[in-house]
Amino acid sequence: MKRYGIIMAGGSGTRFWPLSRKKLPKQFLNLTGKDSMLNETIDRLLPVIAGEDIFVVTNEAYTELTYGTVEGRLRPDHILSEPAARNTAACIGYAAMEILRKYGDGVMGIFASDHYIRDTEGFCRVLEQAMTEAERTDRLVTIGIRPTFPSTGYGYIRRETKTDADTGTGEAHKVKEFVEKPDAETAKAYFSSGDYLWNSGMFVWKASVILEQFAKLLPDIYADLLRIGDSMGTAQEKEVIREIYPNIHKISVDYGIMERADNVVVLEGDFGWSDVGSLDALGGLYPSDENGNQRFGEQVSLDTAECISYSKDKLIALIGVKDLIVVEGEETILVCEKNRAQDVKQIVEKLEADGKMRYL
Amino acid sequence: MKRYGIIMAGGSGTRFWPLSRKKLPKQFLNLTGKDSMLNETIDRLLPVIAGEDIFVVTNEAYTELTYGTVEGRLRPDHILSEPAARNTAACIGYAAMEILRKYGDGVMGIFASDHYIRDTEGFCRVLEQAMTEAERTDRLVTIGIRPTFPSTGYGYIRRETKTDADTGTGEAHKVKEFVEKPDAETAKAYFSSGDYLWNSGMFVWKASVILEQFAKLLPDIYADLLRIGDSMGTAQEKEVIREIYPNIHKISVDYGIMERADNVVVLEGDFGWSDVGSLDALGGLYPSDENGNQRFGEQVSLDTAECISYSKDKLIALIGVKDLIVVEGEETILVCEKNRAQDVKQIVEKLEADGKMRYL
After folding, report:
1. CA dist A27 to A209, A250, B239, Å?
2. Do B337 and A346 touch (CB under 8 A)?
3. What is the average per-residue pLDDT within A300-318?
4. Distances from the Cα of A243 to the Cα of A90, A93, A223, A252, angstroms
5. Which among B31, B203, B188 has a CA at the least distance from the CA of B118?
6. Whole-angstrom distance, CA of residue B274 vs CA of residue A336
7. Cα dist from A262 to A206, A216, A217, whole Å
8. Most A CBs within 10 Å: which of B278, B304, B314, as the mutation test of the A interface?
């Protein structure tokens, strides 16, 4: 069965400011020194999914940037533009309809464009299993990450203890429930139980199968998707999408489908995954020196420990400091206590309120 | 009697790195947002000393930079170039000889080019007294600063308790001794005694009088100065200076003359003086917000206290930090615990050892 990759690249979050900007969201950043997160996501899929079968769904605002970033890696007509950000259900439904109507049914994997994976081979092994699983069964397959610490920053997937003997690979577990980000105590319990995996937001299913779930669980969205689908290949396609898309029900696929469907299985992955959700996560991307300092770009330090520095052009010199994140943005320098990384959004809001848009 | 101003601008210190660089020492920096420290020093003298009678002595390496900085404020032939840095005695002796031989005797005031003075009027009042004092008597007049805290970073001048009734102004005190930077306990004793003033390095005397002191206390330097003086106005002047200067005895005027002369008096000044000796001194130049944060350039902060930030181009965003100095240099970002400001020189040494000269 044909395999497709769908990379969601429409995000415009502020949690990675000042590296991410309104005009340059995180998926377009080069955080590893190798390539943009989007291109790294594409390249990572290639052992399992042919490049000509990979799609990027992005916001209209980032379409040009996406073309420029992927530079011929993908077919131009595989870059799909959303006229408005309507959360992941709409995005995935649109891509499923695109595949089914234009290319025929197939197994599609859904991936974020701004996550980090250390072990590409390990990832590909699990993705291969997931693809096989979704091909042989009509199930919704999700890849859960074996927790490496009791994170309060991720949602969890609770799986059945026993593996699911009915599945093709024999390594999938039925999913009992999806749970939201836990408090510290609950996270510890999840971590030690062994039945909880991090929800990575990676899904694999047949285009036809997920659209059936839309019909069943999100019929309003399904109706919109059908109208879009009917326009596909006609002269009106763009116009119809522009008309319908901005009003599609805004809901995540997790909340709208995964938490409610009864045919969800999870495969466990352990390949150094991170959603790189806030600046402190940069620490996971770079090696540590003998004092636990991590850096991208030039750093020199004296009596400094457990600091993360990121700079493109400038040397970052640190003296007598600990547990700091120091980031050189294009027009901003951020110095942030490590466990306050999530509060950059408050600074962004402050700047927005003060009309200092040039820094955003 | 004619009054002259001598501004010493040959320094190339590293204590203000990364703002000061080898190619742009502190005296050429604009730390206040108004003008370079050198130009502010010149402008500050103008109520007491005519601009056409002000000299700058600098190192050959900075002569062009000095011309460019003072931009017609001074007579071009009043910018004197030292072929080598030989400490303050040589510099002052050279300037005194220049004045005596080329313009005739007069009262000369000696000033650093990289100090900060908040209250220019107060400064000019004391300078006027000092000029009068040096004119009426053949004494070495120094301006001591009333301490505002028990600093361990300044040398002190111990004065006689009684004012010196012999002096013209009646407000001078004879100097008992010059003392080096004290430890914290001694500094406290000095501070509470009332007999100790900070040694600001500002001196006023007749050119003829200081040269007599050279003859008496530093005869080797005096001999060199005479040879330079004899060449002045001849075609060989430059050549002679280039030959002699690099070998002049290297000693400070404090150590070579002030601590040993018996005709030294001190006038007390209280005009918001600082030698801006290390980056933490920037705090004294800028107003504080309600959390004690001080800034030059744009700063935005959240749960941040007692931090100093300096940036020319970029916004500095601070989250959850305290007692930091954050500086955007041209090619470096420094983040330094406030009481470690003096340790930037260790970073400079490290970079030098690693051959990373572009950052120096």
Report:
1. 28, 21, 64
2. no
3. 97
4. 14, 16, 14, 21
5. B31
6. 30
7. 16, 12, 11
8. B314
The dihedrals phi and psi of A201, each to the nearest 5 degrees, come to 75, 15
CA gap B194, B161 in Å, rounded = 9
Distance (Å, whole) CA A108 – CA A131? 8
Q: How far apart are CA B358 and CA B336, in angstroms?
A: 20
Using 50, 70 and 90 to split pLDDT, how confident is the model at B282? Answer: very high
Looking at residue B256, its pLDDT comes to: 97
Give the H or E element holding residue A120. helix A120-136
Residues in chain A: 360
Token code pair at residue A56: 């990027």
Which pLDDT tens digit goes with each residue over B119-162? 999 999 999 999 999 999 999 999 999 999 999 999 999 999 87
Residues in CB range of B13: below 8 A, 6 or more apart: B20, B25, B26
Q: pTM of the entire structure?
A: 0.91
DSSP B316: E
SS3 A12: coil
Q: Give residue B197's Cα distance to chain centre.
A: 16
DSSP secondary structure letters along B219-252: HHHHHHHHHHHHHTTSTTHHHHHHHHGGGS----
ipTM of the shown complex: 0.91
In terms of C-beta distances under 8 Å and separation of at least 24 residues, what long-range contacts does B242-249 make, across chains too?
B242/B83, B245/B82, B245/B83, B245/B84, B245/B86, B245/B90, B245/B94, B246/B83, B246/B84, B246/B86, B248/B86, B248/B90, B248/B221, B248/B224, B249/B86, B249/B89, B249/B90, B249/B218, B249/B220, B249/B221, B249/B224
B262 φ, ψ (degrees, to nearest 5): -105, 5
Nearest CA in chain A to B339: A320
Residue type (1 letter), A38? L
Say whether B331 and A314 touch across the interface (CB within 8 A): yes
Beta bridge partners of A56: A7, A79
Token reading at B67: 């011309």
Instruction: Look up residue A323 and give its two tokens.
Output: 């547990």
Q: What's the pLDDT at A170?
A: 65
Which residues are within 8 A (CB) of A179 and not within 5 positions of it... i.e. 6 or more apart?
A155, A156, A157, A158, A190, A196
Q: What is the pLDDT of residues B180-215, one digit of tens each?
A: 999 999 999 999 999 999 999 999 999 999 999 999
Query: Is the bond into A18 cis (omega within 30 degrees of 0)?
Result: yes
CB contact under 8 A, B356 and A315: yes
Which pair of structure tokens corresponds to residue A267?
A: 């495969």
Helices vs strands, H then E, count in chain B: 10, 17
pLDDT at B161: 84
CA–CA dist A248, A28 (Å, integer): 26
Residues of A in contact with B317 (CB under 8 A): 18, 332-336, 344, 347
